[in-house]
């Protein structure tokens, strides 16, 4: 192992209704819709990206909302819980806000940290934790100001069918450091300030089923294109089978499935989400790669319309 990822780049999940997806992540959680595009491999499906004000690595959750998709089941070979970090002192605000939108919240503790855990509208498991690290999110929306806004990922909880194998790839391939153990979990740390703490269930978990309400893959950061090519060789030399380097417009990607069943991606920090839009206009227009521009009218006709809108809380 000669390379070390700074932490999570993004997490990609499945959903069904695109407007309900926007309502939850922008309307309830106050994240910014930083990119509205399509699944390049299935142009009849949106690919929606939510993050902080600038769409920075370590803050981005993305979704493939497909109305006809089946309901998934969270289990081994998946991200079991997506962890978001908020400023210190913000959890009471979030507990009240989530309750005001009818979202049931459970309190939990792990590694001497307190968490608010809940499900999104599709059944994806999410938790919030307070931490000092990471810059505050400058995005304000729907009554959420930077003093309370989600900064980005705190990390993730991984469920593996072969926990020892997943622990090995986290340490020996990605360069994370095992820093602690708690009942049922091992904690690994990357050097970044955000998306840097990964908790792995130390017990093997029965395989999950992909579908709405589950995570498709977790992506790790590569600092530039040169390092990305080095990562491909690193993965190959570790005995895994990486894909080709793929241009995803806003980052370059490679994928491999680790032996515990989780699909890992390694994604470059550049060029970023202002690659094809002005920074103050992110997410406002459907952005298509050049090879689909000639089919824009047909593609737009097949997609359900979505809008970012402020929601009115209905539970006090």
TrEMBL record:
Oxidoreductase found in the keyword field: yes
The keyword Oxidoreductase belongs to this UniProt entry's keyword annotation: yes
Alphabetical keyword list: Dioxygenase, Oxidoreductase
One MF annotation (Gene Ontology) recorded for this entry: dioxygenase activity
Superkingdom classification of source: Bacteria
Coiled coil: none
Gene3D superfamilies: 2,3-Dihydroxybiphenyl 1,2-Dioxygenase, domain 1
SUPFAM superfamilies cross-referenced by the UniProt entry: Glyoxalase/Bleomycin resistance protein/Dihydroxybiphenyl dioxygenase
Residue ranges of every copy of the VOC domain listed in the record: 7-131, 152-269
A Pfam entry, by short name: Glyoxalase
Protein name per its UniProtKB record: Ring-cleaving dioxygenase mhqO
